[in-house]
Amino acid sequence: MHVLAQANLRIDANAVDYALLGFYFLLVLGIGYLSRRQVSTSLDFFLSGRSLPAWVTGLAFIAANLGAIEVMGMSANGAQYGMPTAHYFWIGAVPAMLFLGIVMMPFYYGSKVRSVPEFMLRRFGKPAHLVNGISFALAQILIAGANLFLLASVVNLLLGWPIWVSIMLAAAIVLTYTALGGLSAAIYNEVLQFFVIVAALLPLTIVGLYKVGGWQGLAQAISEGPGGSQQLNAWPGSQLTGFSSNFLSVLGLVFGLGFVLSFGYWTTNFVEVQRAMASKSMSAARRTPIIGAFPKLLMPFIVIVPGMIAGVTVTELLGENKAALMRGQAADSGATFNDALLLLMRDLLPNGMLGIAIAGLLASFMAGMAANLSSFNTVFTYDIWQAYLRKGRPDEYYLGIGRVVTVAATVSAIGTAFIASTYSNLMDYLQQLFSFFNAPLFATFILGMFWKRMTPTAGWTGLVSGTGAAVVVFLLAETGVWDLPGQGAAFVGAGAAFVVDIAVSVAVTYGSRPKPQAQLVGLVYSLTPKESLRHSTTGEDAGWYRRPGLLAGIALALTVVLNIVF
Known about the structure:
- It contains 24 helices and no strands.
- It has about 575 residues and is an all-alpha fold.
- It has one domain (about 15-30, about 45-535): Sodium/glucose cotransporter, CATH 1.20.1730.10.
- It holds the Pfam family SSF.
């Protein structure tokens, strides 16, 4: 990237662009300051007092996932792999989001737990709770570091600010509004950031398509390029998975990405679940991920398509440069696929629009990092500090700890930003982390929720074994023992983590003692009274358009249509 900075990536931002950026930062900090007035208890700080409407939490649910890695990483994947990248949305997100809203949110919201690890504590006991709490906290610091690194790189390349200045400034702004207003500040800013991101990326798609002669022109240019016509169809996606066999590629996408990685991320990742738990009612909590599914279906058109356009219009990514990058070699231009969106902005956007686009990128980075911080401070404070280190203190004490932990997490993220800097495609890094942390958790979670016999010992041994299996696959791929190009190592690692976790959990269960059934009511599906899983259909929850089942059915039908069309 530094080669590019010396080349001609610097965008000539003028006074209008800087004014727009300054206004945006003031708005973000103002929301944090105003949100502070609503924070008087730890529940207010960590879960917004469970008072937010579904449309707010639904948009925040998506914006929390629209971090730096999502926007830059998916556009990089668009330039490298083309339309198969849409699987991260249509196979790797929406079905799991609908499952979360219909099946799992009643357990989370109805049991009044404050975090996913707290659910693990009630179902499996302290060892599984502690393992989950520590692994989740570590994952959030690593992912926040990736967001910070990418943000700093973009600011360095676009505006010429040194990397360390960019990191410190971005970290300070996110820290300020998250520490002031807690989850409410993070969520209201995420709603704002969602609209800013769309306002930044939609014009880029429209102008880019106009430049290449519409979809037909884009299709022709991609077909004639190094990736070929495979990049125009979502299936079988063999370039993305790294499998030469179409059957194995589809199997990897459906099982590795669509089931294990996707369900593991969306249904057990507290970053996302926390937004739904901040809703004002059970119905609103169930609708949160379902409402989020609708904009998620359309995201490929403003995130992936600009990457595809960059791959056929940006000089630094054309022809032999693209071919070299696809072979895993350095391009003569010094560019990488991570630069696709930035290079397209450089080529297409005039001043004024540049300010909005830069604000949109910064918004995506800050939304992702704020989501990491707000979930980290909740899990660390409730599930590690309160549970094991300082029990029985007044509520004000934990509110104060939450703010201190937010500062510590930000400083730690500055350190982990340097780990992220070693990856040329940050989506590879992110999927690898998910195979370590999310895939085994999902296996333990889903088994424990639907199998009442599963024991507390099986809970923590399955988690540890599953994570170990994913790490082994990663090491085999890194050392060249197992040739898994693309993101195949993450898909195989996730599958291995899931299978090993299930196998170990089942084996250990039959050799250890289960909890009494009376202690599992509300935590295991078959033992939970069905009326406790139902939601209100009156007052603010009335109306056909507020029925979670109907909304989920519409979203699922649209998902099927998009998979058939593309």
